[in-house]
Design brief:
This is FRAS1-related extracellular matrix protein 1 isoform X7. Keywords: Calcium, Glycoprotein, Repeat, Signal. Belongs to the FRAS1 family. The protein is mainly beta. It folds into 6 domains: 30 residues, no CATH class; 114 residues, Immunoglobulin-like, CATH 2.60.40; 111 residues, Immunoglobulin-like (Sandwich); 109 residues, Immunoglobulin-like (Sandwich); 123 residues, no CATH class; 121 residues, Mannose-Binding Protein A, Chain A. The chain is 7% helix and 39% strand. The strands form 13 sheets. Strands 45, 46, 47, 48, 49, 50, 51 and 52 form an 8-stranded mixed sheet that branches. Strands 4-15-12-7-10 form a 5-stranded mixed sheet. It is elongated and about 160 Å long.
């Protein structure tokens, strides 16, 4: 069967050969057949999307934007005839101005047709045209035969002349210990952020004008050093890391940068300052007599100290033995609160009265959190034998004449001798109640400025045998004197300086590991009082093994935060992120009275709210609500936003806005760990 398609593909014209015969004669003939293709289909407007470009630029009218199709007409014959030219620009064909008013689909397919905007403030331009296959009139648009001109639209975007602007520029200070042993600070969008309404984050460029001096930037995804630039998306995804040079003992660095967009618009150069702190021992060598009692080791933090920081302690016995030659506090974690630069850690030296060789042990700082370890990470302690109660050493010195470059020897003092003034600044770790002027002393604290008679004025002796025990340390606070003793027996306290007017008080000695601090009121020294409020049960206010600055009660360690007041929401965040705890849960009326006292009877946030379900009050720690202390009655329908609880006048509870109220103090608490 001969089809039209097969005949069109055959050579034209076609010939048919034949023979004509009458029986006598034969004649050959040729029948010539000429086929002509018939164009019946109209061209179809398949695409007319228009063009978009920036003012003053040139755009290509490609087949993705403009396309005419016809099954029986080649592209070179599909013609666009321009009826009206653009007003704010010019059409070009193969680089020359379009003059003949028409171009073909083949020109479009070859990307020979372009539009160039002439500039100005125009936002829209266009040209109109009709399409033809040069045989049939009209063309099909959206299924309909069309003979009227159609429009090709051109969207003009205004040229971006505004650079990105900085919306947040902070000082990164959260230091982390990396897997390779170095320290680093992540630079994220929380401390550095730029915005541009017409530029994507991956095209907002931070060009480095001056690299950091004491470290380098690297991309944590690729592992490559960053020398020239990074973008906002990198900051959003937390891939920019500043690595501190471990060989330099510095605590800050700077980087100068300029934020810009792809068109070259650049903002004013800015400085990013990175800050951190480093922790180390104030001294690395100690020599102490065996009968010293308690040896306080001083740990210092230098540099940026407005964030909390932590460091762990590890003991290397060397030749001394834990439990035999010295005892340690169960807590091996030192916490530096914001603004704090010095901490003390006490070691009890055991006095056995036996002649023996000198012993040595080391205390090592490790595992810092939000800080860098300095060069002085190891403190060596040499315990000198007491030699029958008289410690003789070529390194002896008078403590108040101590110089930093010299070794330190701490002596127990005989009656009448002058008291030492330990090095290091004094920090109070407990807030006193307004009703008393006593200074409360917890483990690790050291006071200065007491007279020589303070040490010799009081002694302990065992009941019945007359053996005396000197206090290991004595602190003065106005008219109050705080005596610290270490022992394992039930002892009586008597005033040594006035034999004819002895005043006695029973002092329970718990163990050699615990330091029992009591305040003797003078002249009424008939009894000893706790440095906390005396109406509280003794077993409830013992600091046990809470970190320095934290106070024990009801199975929890508590810390009152006053330096950085906040709303309820910021208090919750601060307790969790900076103090590894929760906003406090109040367990009983006795617990509430104790909290009100340590707060200085000033308002503070607690961890109670009904944010999840109105009227359903819940502790943030998950503890059941077994005690309440509302000012009037439990609120049933809280006002909008007033879903969080503040302890206010006389320790009563009232509701406040969780995020918009004025800032108050708050108490963080965490479960006591044995």
């Amino acid at each position: 069967m001969v089809t039209q398609e097969s005949m069109l593909k055959a050579a034209l014209p076609l010939f048919a050969r034949f023979i004509v015969s009458n029986g006598l004669q034969t004649k050959h003939g040729v029948f010539k057949i000429i086929l002509e293709a018939l164009d019946k289909d109209l061209p179809v407007m398949a695409k007319n999307k228009g063009l978009r470009l920036v003012e003053g630029s040139t755009g290509v009218i490609s087949p993705d934007l403009l396309q005419l199709t016809d099954p029986d007409t080649p592209a070179k014959k599909l013609t666009f005839t321009v009826i009206q030219f653009p007003e704010h620009g010019q059409l070009y064909l193969q680089g020359s101005v379009l003059l003949q008013h028409s171009f073909t689909q083949e020109d479009v397919d070859n990307r020979h047709v372009t539009y160039q905007h002439s500039g100005g403030n125009s936002h829209l331009d266009s040209f109109t045209f009709v399409a033809t296959d040069r045989t049939n009139p009209g063309f099909i648009v959206d299924g309909r035969v069309w003979q009227e001109p159609v429009s090709f639209t051109i969207q003009i975007d205004q040229l971006d002349k505004t650079p990105p602007h900085i919306t947040h520029l902070g000082n990164p200070s959260q230091v982390g210990l990396l897997k390779n042993g170095c320290y680093g600070i992540y630079v994220t969008s929380q401390v550095l952020k730029a915005s541009d309404p017409d530029t994507d984050d991956n095209q907002i460029i931070f060009k480095i004008l001056q690299s950091p001096q004491h470290g380098h930037l690297e991309n944590t995804t690729t592992g490559e050093f960053i020398h020239e630039k990074f973008n906002q998306r990198d900051l959003n995804s937390k891939t920019i890391l500043y690595v501190i040079n471990p060989s330099l003992e510095v605590n800050s660095d700077t980087m100068e940068f300029q934020v810009m967009d792809p068109t070259g618009n650049a903002a004013t150069p800015q400085i990013l300052e990175l800050k951190w702190s480093y922790i180390e021992w104030s001294k690395v060598e100690y020599e102490v007599c065996e009968n010293v009692g308690v040896l306080p080791l001083e740990i210092t933090r230098k540099g940026y100290s407005m964030d909390s920081a932590f460091v762990s302690l590890k003991v290397n016995e060397v030749s001394a033995t834990v439990g035999k030659d010295f005892t340690l506090s169960p807590s091996r974690l030192i916490q530096f609160d914001p603004g704090m630069s010095t901490k003390m850690w006490n070691i009890a030296i055991t006095y056995d009265g036996l002649e023996e060789d000198d012993e040595v042990f080391e205390v090592i700082l490790n595992s810092p959190v939000n800080a860098v370890l300095g060069t002085k990470t190891k403190a060596a302690v040499k315990i000198l034998d007491s030699k029958g109660g008289q410690c003789h050493s070529s390194y002896s010195f008078t403590p108040n004449m101590y110089k930093p470059q010299e070794k330190g020897i701490w002596h127990s003092l005989a009656p009448g001798s002058s008291s030492p003034s330990p090095s290091g600044s004094f920090h109070l770790e407990r807030r006193p109640s307004p009703s008393t002027k006593h200074f409360a002393v917890t483990r690790g604290d050291t006071l200065q400025g007491f007279e020589s008679t303070d040490l010799s004025g009081m002694k302990l002796r065992t009941s019945g045998n007359g053996k005396t025990v000197l206090p290991s340390s004595v602190y003065r606070n106005g008219t109050d004197i705080i005596y610290n003793y270490h022992g394992v027996l039930s002892l009586e306290l008597e005033e040594y300086s006035s034999p004819t007017h002895k005043r006695r008080a029973k002092v329970p000695i718990l163990s050699q590991l615990e330091e029992i601090s009591r305040v003797a009121e003078l002249p009424q020294a008939a009894k000893l009082e706790s440095t906390t409020d005396s109406h509280l049960p003794r077993q409830e206010v013992d600091d046990k093994s809470c970190p320095v600055g934290w106070h024990y009660h009801s199975g929890y360690c508590h810390s009152l935060i006053t330096e950085q007041k906040g709303t309820w929401k910021t208090a919750v965040q601060s307790c969790r992120e900076h103090h590894l705890s929760n906003l406090v849960t109040v367990l009983s009326r006795q617990h509430m009275r104790w909290l009100w006292d340590i707060s200085g009877r000033k308002p503070f946030w607690i961890g109670l709210s009904d944010q999840v379900h109105a009227g359903n009050w819940e502790w943030i720690s998950g503890e059941p609500v077994t005690f309440t202390n509302w000012r009037r009655r439990p609120p049933q329908f809280t006002k909008s936003g007033k879903n969080c609880v503040l302890v206010h006048k006389q320790g009563k509870w009232q509701t406040k806005d969780c995020g918009k109220s004025k800032p108050y103090n708050y108490v963080c608490a965490r479960k006591f760990q044995m």
